[in-house]
Amino acid sequence: QVQLVESGGGVVQPGRSLRLSCAASGFTFSNYAIHWVRQAPGKGLEWVAVISYDGSNKYYAGSVKGRFTISRDNSKNTLYLQMDSLRTEDTAVYHCARGRVPESYFDFWGQGTLVTVSS
Amino acid sequence: QSALTQPASVSGSPGQSITVSCTGISSDVGSYYLVSWYQQHPGKAPKLMIHEGTKRPSGVSNRFSGSKSGNTASLTISGLQPEDEADYYCCSYVVRSTSWVFGGGTKVTVL
Q1: Closest approach of chain B CAs to the CA of A98, in angstroms?
Q2: Which residues in chain A are closer than 8 Å to B99, comparing Cβ atoms?
């Protein structure tokens, strides 16, 4: 069955960096676009970034553009999110989600990893 | 891109039908049948309930249905059951910016 397992979350000070990972299994990882979607505590969902199946195309939300970098290693079935210059407003649970193209929806989600940005 | 507009809460008794609305603008909800709906129970991952406006994934109860009119999409839950109590989010792809926008979420309560 499709599984997405995030890791790498934790507590980090403002201005510092953190890298999240998302390990995929149960499907051909290299055939799918993958997204990051975050959820601040007690708040709604916010789309963060997407990477195409082969890594050639990447798109970001305006709130993270220039600070976050999405990447993937298809040989390891793993997605990454490099988060630099972190701000307190980046505090959230970060989910990875498999994307369907061109229909543009998310058909499977991971449980998420919590990132807390605090001094 | 502003978030899509959803009511904060909707409630109903077991067996009743409820509808959750999701209002956007012509460049997102109004443009394409690219609206999806997600159910999220507390502490759990979101689950896809409806995609492309009206399509139900395999395994999702046929009590859930989607529709769209103009700039408003809707999720209807018929025969409301206790396990339907959860948060529901709509989402639309925004073609002109290659981005996705979510609604603020609706808490569905089964009375």
Answers
A1: 11
A2: 47, 59, 61
Contacts of B90 in chain A (CB under 8 A): none
What is the tens place of the pLDDT at every residue in B74-98? Answer: 999 999 999 999 999 999 988 788 8
> Contact A110/B45, CB-based, under 8 Å?
yes
pLDDT tens-digit map of B29-65: 666 678 999 999 999 999 999 998 899 999 999 999 9
Q: What are the helix (H) ranges across A1-119?
A: none
Residues with Cβ within 8 Å of A92's Cβ and at least 6 positions away in sequence, in order, are: A38, A39, A40, A41, A43, A46, A114, A115
Q: For B34, which of A45, A97, A103 is closest by C-beta distance?
A: A103
Q: Give the integer Cα–Cα distance in Å for A31 and A86.
A: 31
Cα–Cα distance measured from residue A23 to residue A39, given in angstroms and rounded to the nearest whole number: 19
Q: For position B1, what pLDDT does the model report?
A: 64
CB contact under 8 A, B47 and A110: no
Cα distances (angstroms) measured from residue B31 to each of A5, B7, B20, B52, B56: 34, 21, 20, 12, 20
